[in-house]
Amino acid sequence: MDFRKKLLFVALLIFAVIHGTQADAMVTGTVFCDQCKDGQRSLFDFPVNGAKVTMTCADSNGQVTMSREETTNWFGSYTMRLDGTPDLNGCSARVSGSGEGSMGCGEASGPPQNLRLMFRMFDMEMYTVDPLLAQPAKPMQQCASSSNPVPAPPTQHKSPPPFQLPPVAGLPPLPPLPPLPPPPPLIFAEASACPYRKWTTPEYKCYWRGVNPETKVAVVFGMAAARRYGNDMTLWNGLHGRGDPYRTLLREGVTALLNSYNSLQFSYHPLSVVQHMNWALMGSTRTVLLTALRFMRANSGAGNVTCKFTSCK
């Protein structure tokens, strides 16, 4: 039994002792946006907020005997609660639509997934569903060339020549418009890992993508992080933590998240960083330290990956 199952078992045991036994069933799962529309998880996929999930149960004749709909939260997860302990082994869940917050990823959906019984105890049942896929109307352009990514040659951003309006008879020429700022750097197709000190250097500020220094830790990592670090802690403040196991975990977790947004071959996917952070925050101090060390090893390149940053100026 892994750590998550142990934690869930202890929580349900305490709940049963304090509140008494109550028959209840729960179904949980997550919806991801299948940006490549290939029917499988990839580095480009992200959790979908506002996706509608429908669970249906049918008898041996194919007649629907039960149906329940739920909407995913900000982290793309959903939870369905049912009174009693119905047998849900023949039931399945699928993405049935999109709502506000789904970011346009719901015009189509992947195949339905069957419910799997995780455990049954004290007249309580918990079922899990393998990740469901919502799909946009068209696959993203990067997907066609992402199967065998080739490192892009280094390029130097050159500002275009200043634009000038044609002269008008009788009027002095207008001054040239200011040059456009250089475009943001491309995501590294090859592996890149940068330690936290690089992310606090002003000359590399253009590599912040997906989040910004003022983004709240609680918004990115969820309720467990909010309870530990408060609602006002920013990612920038989190990068400067040291001396305490939980602050070290936050520093390396934020660094790993930033690295995952900038390199397709980084050791962790953005969602994986969030998951490992939450597992650590719900565990012991030893788990916190081990997770922080794993993040630190990935952020340092594990001895064979370097930081691909070049100055933003």
Structural description of this entry:
With 313 residues, the protein is α+β, with helices and mostly antiparallel strands. It folds into 2 domains: 113 residues, Immunoglobulin-like, CATH 2.60.40; 108 residues, no CATH class. It has 8 helices and 10 strands. Strands 1, 2, 3, 4, 5, 6, 7, 8, 9 and 10 form a 10-stranded mixed β-sheet that branches. Helix 6 runs parallel beside helix 8 and helix 7 runs antiparallel to helix 8.
Jot down its keywords:
313 residues; 2 domains; ten-stranded mixed β-sheet; alpha+beta; Immunoglobulin-like
Specify the number of helices. 8
Could you give a short account of the major beta sheet? Answer: 10 strands, mixed
Class derived from helix and strand content: alpha+beta
* % residues in beta strands: 15-25%
The N- to C-terminal Cα distance equals 51 Å
How many strands appear in the DSSP assignment?
Answer: 10
CATH topology of the largest domain: Immunoglobulin-like
Extract low-pLDDT stretches. 15-21, 146-152
Radius of gyration: 24 Å
Average pLDDT, all residues: 79
Helical content, roughly? 25-40%
The assigned CATH architecture of the largest domain is: Sandwich
What's the helix-strand series?
HEEEEEEEEEEHHHHHHH
CATH class of the largest domain: Mainly Beta
Form type:
globular
- Overall structural domain count: 2
